[in-house]
Amino acid sequence: MKKFKHKLLAVMQHVVFVHREQVLLLRYSNYQGKGVEGLWGLPGGHYIASDPVTDLRREVREETGLEIEDELELLRTYVVMFPDGVEKFGVFYLCRLSSTYRPVITLSHEHTEYMWAARDDIGGLKIIGPYHRQVILDVLK
Length: 141
Prior knowledge:
Blueprint: E1 9-19, E2 22-28, E3 40-41, E4 44-46, H1 52-64, E5 73-81, E6 87-96, E7 111-117, H2 119-122, H3 130-139
Parallel strand pairs: 1-6
Antiparallel strand pairs: 1-2, 1-4, 2-3, 2-7, 5-6
């Protein structure tokens, strides 16, 4: 009988904010020092404790200043193994912003800039991962 081997697992959550057929992207700073600086990604972060949606709302508020008021729709999940041996389980949610005006974004130290990107803008951007790129393109079909 094989012995059960425990794995390290981290849970990541991301929100694809869509406003007028554009997606909110954030450019990573060098705060982590792990080679992600300069790459583009989605708001979100690690699930830490309590309710996952509560954690996601906190992360989004910290990174962008946005309060999630519109409905979240589950889009997709993914699993990826990092070089340090930590397996990450990711969850993507969709949030279609219903407001007429584009929201004001207030960035944390984790990001250097933001942009609202249309489908045609995505091709030349260095996105943090293939799952991120694909979910963004799928949403902007």
